[in-house]
Description:
Blueprint: H1 5-10, H2 25-33, H3 47-56, E1 64-68, E2 71-75, E3 93-99, H4 104-116, E4 119-121, E5 124-126, E6 130-134, H5 140-153, E7 158-162, H6 166-176, E8 182-186, H7 191-201, E9 205-208, H8 212-224, E10 230-233, H9 239-256, E11 265-267, H10 269-272, H11 276-288, E12 291-296, H12 301-315, E13 327-331, E14 340-344, H13 347-360, E15 364-369, H14 376-381, H15 387-397, E16 407-410, H16 418-424, E17 429-432, H17 440-450
Parallel strand pairs: 3-6, 3-12, 6-7, 7-8, 8-9, 9-10, 11-12, 14-15, 14-16, 16-17
Antiparallel strand pairs: 1-2, 4-5, 13-15
Helix pairs in contact: 5-6, 6-7, 11-12, 13-17, 15-16
Amino acid sequence: MALTGIQILKMLPKKNCGECGIPTCLAFAMKVAAGQTEIAECPYVSDEVKEQIGEASAPPIRTVKLGGGDHIFTTGGETCQFRHEKRFENPTGIAVLVTTEMDNAAVDGRLERFKSLRYERVGVMLKADLVAIKDAKGDAASFSALVKRVLAEAEDAKLILISDSPDNLAAAAKECGERKPLLFGATLANADAMAKIGQECGCPVGVKGQNVDDTVAISEKLLAAGLKDLVIDTGARTVRAAFEDNVLARRAAVKSKFKPLGFATITFPCEITDDPMLEAMVASVLIAKYTGIVVLSDLQGDTLFPLLLERLNIFTDPQRPMVVQEDVYPVNGPGDSSPVLITCNFSLTYFIVSGEIEGSKVPSWLLIKDTEGLSVLTAWAAGKFGADMIAQFIKKSGILEKVKHRELIIPGYLASLKGELEEELPEWKIVIGPREAGHLPAFLKEWKAAA
């Protein structure tokens, strides 16, 4: 059961030192209780208290990490059943399946599509996350060889190793080094061996149940053996059963705090149907209803892209605007005589404006001011896009060293700021740009001709 802020405060040293970045222990305790900071941020709390509070304040669905270094995939960590209650935390992982029975061309094709099917949208790179490697022959040598091949050819892939043999999984896991894979295939029969391998390798283990009851029994056995990081498969191989099991597991974990089901689920649309289009539709249902990882038989642009967009929409925090970093962005290779434009850091505004500038073919400097994700008029009304703030940003942005002229193009909706900006930036000429981004190409061409 989660602890309240007052309960957490009683376990703190109450120094009010502020070394955690929060002025008082009470405020710190409240933030820990709300999940806004970690108890480990307090430098004076004991390890025993850290463990006690960390366990009590942990999300009902355990957070599990795969991979290593700069390439980490995180699943689980969910705290609610419906997104409008708070938000969903970690996007569903999309995996492509390769097996030891596939010929080289089939494996090459899947790995090539894994690396090439990537799309940038509103500043986010959309792509598949994992490669599932199946020991279809039950042969340790061919399994390890395929794992080494994937490691070499797909450097940012996080791995799922699938085998009925704990020994084969152990041998393949050793090839992965610091890139910790998910070891999938724990059953009631091999749970003890899988728990030992998972602990020795420091890898999460995948539960391979036949139904929900069997999955619970395996999870309890692994938990009793000291293994904490699990991913569960209830064995459902129809879309209805998989849907129902995902809902049941999420409800049991979130509403009833039932630990044996308090883990992210892994589902296999690739085993539910042989029809690629139907497989994508099954995956779309499971992404919407709680699955942590979906494993697809292949990746194709016409089916992968809609799944990536669905995932983006579901896992975008509705309480937090999407933003781009405050900076100076060159568009079309600008030089020291190129026009300078400024706008807010709401991601949609940035991508629309930068897209229109790019389409104009006019080399330009685009200044993006941090407005906490608010659009131009909203930011101005909220006092986050005023003349003084723009002037401060201009002076510290480095644009003065990039251009010889002193002309700044502001959005047409900020025309009322022209006088104030000229007072704040007396050496600059303030030019009022168009209100709509769609008029920028013509405006920039006229500016270039006049210059």
